[in-house]
Amino acid sequence: MKENSPNAPVIDFDTPALRMHRKVRSLKDKIAEIGIGIGGISVIIAILLIFIYLLYEIIPLMKSASVEPVAEYQMPATSVRPDEARTLYLATEEQAEVAMRLTSVGEVVFFSVADGQVVDRVQLNIPAGTELTTVASSGPAKNLLALGLSDGRVLLIKDRYRITYPNDERLITPRIDYPYGEEPLVISEAGSGLSKIAVSETDSSLLISAVSTDKKAYLVQYLKEESLLGDVTIERNSLQLPVIENDIHSMLIGPDQNWIYMVSNKGTVDVVDTRDMDTPKLNARLKITEQNSGIGDVKLQLGGISLLVGDKNGQLSQWFLVRDDQNEWGLKRIRSFEHDGTPVALMLPEHRRKGFLMLDEKGQLSIYSTTAQRTMLTEKVLGAAPVAGAISPRADYLLLERQDGMLQALEVYNKHPEVSWTSLWDKVWYESYEEPAYTWQSSASNNEFEPKYSLMPLAFGTLKAAFYAMIVATPLAICGAIYTAYFMAPALRRKIKPVIELMEALPTVVLGFLAGLFLAPFLENNLPGVFALLILLPIGMVGFGFAWAQMPDKIRHAVPDGWHALLMVPVVLLVSWLALGMSSTLEIALFDGNVRSWLTDEMGIPFDQRNALVVGLAMGFAVIPTIFSITEDAIFAVPKHLSYGSLALGATPWQTLTRVVLPTASPGVFSAVMIGMGRAVGETMIVLMATGNTPIMDVNIFEGMRTLAANIAVEIPESAVGSTHYRILFLAAFVLFMFTFVVNTLAEVIRQRLRKKYGAL
Amino acid sequence: MRESLGNWTKSGSPWIWLNAGAVAISVIMVIGLLALIAVRGLGHFWPASIMEADVRELNGNSFHLVGEKVETVSVPVEQIRAAGIEIDTDQELVDRHLIKIGNRDVHGTDFRWVLEDFIEEVRYPENLIAVERHEWGNFYGYLLALKEKDKTVAVQAAGENSIWPEFKKRVDRAVEIHDEIYQIEKHEIGRINYAIERLRLKERRLEIDGENTPENLAELNAERSVLNAEYEVLQQQLADLYTAANRDSFVARAMNGQEIEVSLSKVVRVYQPNRMDILDKMGFYSAKLWEFASDDPREANTEGGIFPAIFGTVMMVLLMSVLVTPFGVIAAVYLREYAKQGFTTRMIRIAVNNLAGVPSVVYGVFGLGFFIYFLGGNIDQLFFPEALPAPTFGTPGLMWASLTLALLTVPVVIVATEEGLARIPRSVREGSLALGATKAETLWRVVLPMASPAMMTGVILAVARAAGEVAPLMLVGVVKLAPSLPLDGNYPFIHLDQKFMHLGFHIYDVGFQSPNVEAARPLVYATALLLVIVIALLNFSAVAIRNHLREKYKSLEM
């Protein structure tokens, strides 16, 4: 370099400083590349995370149940006559730490679930020489136990648990309460031993029904009356039950003490109507097993409405009373559950949910959910049928007493049994319903409520809202777009387009608010006018067009081509004014002055103020700009030489449009409609504010609906994290997500195709 | 040239006219809607005249009516009769007026429908007064007397106006005291309460960490006693102010003849609309407008201002744009400049594009589940164990709302920025690279500055969308009434964990969840108008920037 030219400035590009500088630069370049790469990919991943997270919340719904043995030990024995003591009743407290064993010798043993250590023993107050013969529980809500004695009397007890925290550790102290006194109540005056018993307690009444060893049936009611001063007086009513013939397997008392079921060992049930407590009537005698099979076990489901029947043929079924057209009640078989045919040994209804566990003669455990008609699990856990069993109140622990005198404790994982494909998307026969129905009713005030998680009414509502919105939006948006793109003067187009696109930016909460507080009452008051408007508007527009064609040239030419839309503005305003102005007149002339009552009384169409019509108009308004702008682009992008060619061949502008331009642009128009549909389906605020949000399934335009999106917005803040309800709302969100995503992707692919096609042209 | 109907139809002209009509309808709908909001929203602040009339119904009932006429509708007579009201008229339609009678403490309701036919002679007496109050809504009636400490100091007969100046003077004094009380209660006591709560948390923290040594505790207790002393002083001040505020009261006669006494401490403002001339009214109008924009809401959000909602919206949107801009831009730059163009990038592009069309409530659900319960819950466990079981970040709040909306709007920014990057001619990039610049330098010095208007467009569109979204916010952080602003003088100044108020949610809440929808409606229109104006301005500026950008690169392409 140096020899080349002495005058040239000498630049050394290889000084250490410059080398360093270059290194720094390339390092910076590398850092930028890596940084942007990581940043970019992580943003994209973050976006995909939505999809993954929604799935992550939903997947537990699909999981079936599982059990895991946690302990096995000798059944804790009684202190007296341990060899004669049979287990009559087994239960655990809320935390499943302490269990209770009630024995035939009248001793209650409380023991630790984990290792069988005896926590406490309580000898019940029963006369010497008498034995406990039978035990019945009033159900998990009141948890009253009735113990039938061999001398025809009944002792009522409750097991109670006090929780204290000495040294910050949970300590559970069990005890036995005698809510009706320590002295047994007399059921059989004759003193014959009781073989079967049932008990039900309400705030004002205690009902005990029993069968004695000499085959007599008793029904005894104790009425509690509380005086103003707080004194409680108890009145005893003894009633006779209709005579029984067969030997009784179980007695059960239905909800509100209105029905008594006596199930015989031969598989029949006597349904006794005790709604009039003084004269119990036999409602029906039914066969509830198939092929003359005997009863394996029969229990009442949580809430007491349903009978769960398992027979010796291994058939499992659910029955409850259904009212027919004549207002008569009859016991109906509602559904049956899958099982392999091994005779049923023991059934354990869950305490908080509509479901039960079943153990058969071979020691197989099956877990069922009744509403969802779903088998959560079938697994062999024992060698033979159990002697007794208990499920903890939270349904997370199962205790089974084996025939060899050992106790087996199992942990149960069964989080979301209420959900199945059927319960979400099919008609389900819910308890106390007259027929299977689609119902969404996620919560109620009491614990015995059967949650109704059918997504059908919501999906239906979503589609109904979208349908009416599309009916409003599609014609307006597409026609408007055709005119704007093809006929309108460019100067006007530049002004009109932003105005309509401004609609898209309007917050939907504003539209919803106007729909609910302005449009809904307005439509209600001017219904005839609005329908008159629908008819008069097109007639008025075409009529004006024809009149315009008849005008002298001077006037016609005063308005240049492509500005005719402006002429329509006064026409539309005038027609609207006329139509709405004659609304009241029409109402008086045609509908006796009141459309609402005319619709309801004469046509039998219910009318809500916030209805699908309101939603259709408001959401149509929100969807118009979306469809308009994409359609307009598609039509405008059709190469001009195509239409020029057509026009040159003598076609009218309209013919050119329908035969040449629209077919070319049709995929674009289609994708516009799809995207508009996607928007209508997911819109939340408008539907939330402009409808009554009742989840009904009715196409009636004058009734409201509840959509998936609105339902999520209303219910998710109140649902417990991780609960079935919460996850189902996530499922609803996922359905919305997938629906719009698929629709939009399809539309996008079509649009890209179209673009390519024009590129070729 | 006359055309026959047949030819005219054949040419397809009716269809063209119908299409033109569709455009006209759309335009009328947009403009009509904006006009409706504007008229109803802005009209509310204008002081309406108070009418006075006697009403005599056919069934013999008659009463005295004082109030503002709000609305008039024509109803078929049939409907009136069906509702069980006798009416004697030959007309088929009758007019029905909605009168705002105020005085909720006297009548139980603020509004009353009255049939035109029953009204006898409407008067507008100049001496009627209107009193805006902190509770029970407006009062309309005649001023009778002024009292100070239960002693009457000035009297006038109904219909006179001699004590009005005195009344105004005393009201001004009471309002001033009220402002002082507000200042102390809201800010100074609020600050002390906040500091005491922080001390409690500190103590709990020490306990958890096992550092609750006597020295540490003593230190905390010392601080606490200082605060308590300050609190005592303020309490004393407040007590004095309350006594002063309750000194005066006025007696007035309501429309049913009942005389009621109202303490001046309950009064917001008094005026005599029937006496005001146009200038007075304009002054009153601008005062009300300012109150609306700058004050806290009163009476379950149905009166007063919406300042906290404006503030909350602005805060949330600002935070969101701070989050969304870098991430959106980086993702776009990666997709356009660094990623290998192919099937995958095309798929990603479509996916990102479509995410903009995913219902916003889905983002809300995601934000609630992932951000709040999952992330927030874990943050609480790690960093804020002292506040548990009360959640700090494990509950809806400002930060999660901004983050959720950032996620919602990031596709908008990505798409806009990518479009901007795609518009930059290759030649510019190649020129830079040929001069020896590295890729990063080209990007930083040449490409990004040229694409900046596109990014701006994206961010503005994102802000416009975020400002109008309500559905996801309902799940992740807005409340109907926030006790304090998310930005204040208490350390750490920005309270990201706090819930906030939002204009859009305010519309929903006041319009639909309010106990007194009728009274709140004008305010909702005004709020809607404000929101629409803000969003329209944002959109128009985005459009303007986009157009400017296009012009700029047109010259480059040549």
Automatic annotation (TrEMBL), chain A:
GO annotation, cellular component aspect: plasma membrane
Keywords (A to Z) from UniProt: Membrane, Transmembrane, Transmembrane helix, Transport
Main location class: membrane
PROSITE patterns: ABC_TM1
Highest classification ranks of the organism: Bacteria, Pseudomonadati, Pseudomonadota, Gammaproteobacteria, Oceanospirillales
BP-aspect Gene Ontology terms: transmembrane transport
UniProt source species: Oceanospirillum linum
Stated family: Belongs to the binding-protein-dependent transport system permease family.
Pfam families: BPD_transp_1
Lineage: superkingdom: Bacteria
Domain ABC transmembrane type-1: 459-747
TM annotation in the entry: 31-56, 465-487, 499-523, 529-551, 563-591, 611-630, 728-747
The protein, known as: Phosphate ABC transporter permease
Cellular compartment(s): Cell membrane
Membrane topology note: Multi-pass membrane protein
Automatic annotation (TrEMBL), chain B:
Protein known as: Phosphate transport system permease protein PstA
GO molecular function: phosphate transmembrane transporter activity
Transmembrane segments: 16-39, 306-335, 355-377, 397-421, 442-464, 523-545
Residue intervals of the ABC transmembrane type-1 domain: 310-542
Source superkingdom: Bacteria
Record-linked PANTHER family: PHOSPHATE TRANSPORT SYSTEM PERMEASE PROTEIN PSTA, PHOSPHATE TRANSPORT SYSTEM PERMEASE PROTEIN PSTA-RELATED
Membrane topology, as annotated: Multi-pass membrane protein
Sorted UniProt keywords: Cell membrane, Membrane, Transmembrane, Transmembrane helix, Transport
GO CC term, one of those recorded: plasma membrane
Subcellular localization: Cell inner membrane; Cell membrane
UniProt GO BP: phosphate ion transmembrane transport
Family from the record: Belongs to the binding-protein-dependent transport system permease family. CysTW subfamily.
Pfam short name (any one): BPD_transp_1
Annotated Gene3D superfamilies: MetI-like
